[in-house]
Amino acid sequence: MLESLRVKNVALIDEADIEFQEGLNILTGETGAGKSILIGSMNLALGAKADKNIIRTGAEYAFVELVFSVTEKEQVERLKELDVYVEDGSLVLQRRILPSKNVCKANGETITNRTLKEIGEILMDIHGQHEHQSLLKEKKQAEILDEFCPDSLKDIKEQIKNLYSEYMKEKEKLDSLENKGENKEKEIALLQFETEEIQQASLTIGEDEELESAYEKMANSRKIAEAVELSHSLLNGTAEGNVISLFGRAMGEINSVSGFDKELEGILEDMVNGEDLLIQLSRRIEDYGRSLSFDESEFREISSRLNTINHLKSKYGDGIERILAYQEEIQKQLLMLTDLEQYKEELLKTHERTEKKLLQLCEQASAIRKEQAAFLEGRMKEALVDLNFLDVQFQISFEKKQFGKDGYDKISFLIALNPGEPCRPLETVASGGELSRIMLALKTVLAKKDRIGTLIFDEIDTGISGKTAWKVSEKLGMLGRGHQVICITHLPQIAAMADSHFLIEKSKEEKKAVTRIRSLQQDEMLREIARLLGTDDVTEAGLNNAIEMKKMAEKSKQY
Q1: Neighbours of 334 (CB within 10 A)
Q2: 59 strand-pairing partners
Q3: What is the number of other CB atoms lying within 10 angstroms of the CB of residue 302?
Q4: Which residue, 534, 532, 512, is CA-closest to 524?
């Protein structure tokens, strides 16, 4: 559920805070007051494209914040998959829009705009003119039918998707084999050469690292010998200034006075240990120096071996493990090419089995869809009649197409809005206003399956009035029983159904147009309904009419 919206420096809005409630939230106001800006702000907070011109004149940035209460377990898990973690059931989304960049955050953590969009798809469903138009697309119609179907279809679709991926990989292999047949001998010769080149090297995993270490040591043997000799001389040379003799003199001095202070006895003990350590280090350095040797032939052999390995790395992989993996792969290809016809025959049989299984799954998916389509047709007809489509017919047609990752069903929604007319595709029949009502009917029918908690309707009242407006109002009220619904409207019939009512007003402040939003109390709601019924000058008759309309709305909610 959307708990609150905060907008700052967006177009005409300098600063606005709205705390939404459960049920049906209605927003009304004069044309041009900023209602569309409000919905636009929500879209911005959910990742919609932002233009720097949206920043209020004179402001440095625009800012939008949405606070959600998220308790649905599935939503929490889906958010976790996006690395967005809900704390104490609360999620705060923020977007700061500056002239040169955008900053998006979820619970204080910076996220990408793409992630913001994905979060929005989990939490909110915004229906404006663009979303109503999407209903005309076959893909959207197929998604709606699948949403109506039981979870068993979801499992089958997942199997179809995975199997279709295998099917396409097998097809690609078969297609590539056709080309291989033409250049078979050349390819065999190349693979044999590469195999022999790698085999002759007799590679051992890790030997390149050992050889490089040995090569490094031998290549710098003179420098190492000089450093070892000088180090030994400094520690234990014959000169009076060598470290061990100087350390011995220092230890003798401390020994001569250690009887005067117990702390000096401890220091002397540490110095004795230190002298032993210096002597041991001197011996180790001396032994290492004696072990140093440089064999010219061994150096050439190591250098040659490294050249061979590095040559293979440049051709077949950047490490011995990758070279050997490449060798294993080309040996498989070589085996396949030497008996190409048999390999093709086996792959073709596998491909046919995959296709057969895929078709069986497509048939299962189609059977579920067709069974559920009959129920959806009936439910949709009832919902459309409730929305004042008098003698409406609603059908779902099926055509069989080449199977894909969702199956082989081509689905179309057909409708007849007048008696005696045949059912035709939505795009050839429905107007914009009719589409908004059809979308509302679908949302009402799918309400129990819809896991998105907040639904927003903009332009839902386009082209309707009178009885139809009441029908739409009743449907919105019904939808508000199981969802949080936010609706912008110009119609008093819809406004009367509000559980919470917000007024959007535009005024002039300091020579600038400013949009303000405030929550209305019961008496203010009635005056706003009366205004929607007539003129700005609310008369007693208009107010009585508004009271009657509100009573009718409250009565309809009881059923």
Answers
A1: 16
A2: none
A3: 20
A4: 532
DSSP state of 6: E
CB 403 within 8 A of CB 362: yes
Cα separation, 110 vs 108, in Å, equals: 7
Give the other-Cβ count within 10 Å of 174's Cβ: 14
Residue 165's pLDDT is 94
Amino acid of residue 102: N
The token pair at 279 is: 């002597």
Q: What angle do CA 193, 321, 216 make, to 5 degrees?
A: 100
Question: For the chain, how many helices (H) and strands (E)?
Answer: 20, 15
Report which residue type is found at 363.
Answer: E
User: E-strand spans in 295-453?
Assistant: 393-404, 407-416, 424-425
Reduced 3-state DSSP string for 14-69: EEEEEECCCCEEEEEECCCCCHHHHHHHHHHHCCCCCCHHHECCCCCCEEEEEEEE
Residue 25, exposed/middle/buried by CB under 10 A (0-12, 13-18, 19+)? buried
Q: Which of 35-39, 86-90, 240-244, 475-479 has the lowest mean pLDDT?
A: 240-244
pLDDT tens digits, 140-198 = 889 889 988 888 899 999 999 999 999 999 888 887 776 665 667 777 788 888 888 88
Closest to 203 (Cα-Cα) out of 110, 44, 363, 310: 310
What would the mean pLDDT of 120-144 be, rounded to a whole number? 77
**Mean pLDDT score of the chain:** 84
d(CA 131, CA 439): 9
For 89-120, the pLDDT digits (tens) are 889 999 999 988 888 998 889 998 889 888 88
Give me the phi and psi of 127, to 5 degrees please: -115, 105
Six token digits for residue 232: 């030994």
In 447-491, beta strands by DSSP E: 454-457, 484-488
Contact 10, 44 (CB under 8 A): yes
CA distance 189 to 519: 81
What is the predicted pLDDT for the residue at 181? 57
At 240 the pLDDT is 56
- Specify the pairing of strand 102-106 against strand 13-19: unpaired
Which position has the higher pLDDT, 114 or 134?
Answer: 114
Q: Give the model's pLDDT for residue 554.
A: 87
What is the pTM assigned to this prediction? Answer: 0.64
In whole angstroms, how far apart are CA 412 and each of 146, 396, 409, 467, 523?
Answer: 13, 6, 10, 30, 47
Structure tokens at 479: 């939808």
Distance in angstroms (rounded) separating the CA atoms of residues 316 and 310: 10
All residues at 6 or more sequence positions from 380 whose CB lies less than 8 Å from its CB, including other chains: 394, 441, 442, 445
Over the stretch 326-372, which tens digit does the pLDDT of each residue have? 888 888 877 777 776 777 788 889 999 999 999 999 999 999 999 99
CA–CA separation, 228 and 10 (whole Å): 73
Q: How many CA atoms lie within 13 A of 207 on its CB side?
A: 14
C-alpha 14/C-alpha 8 separation (Å) is: 5
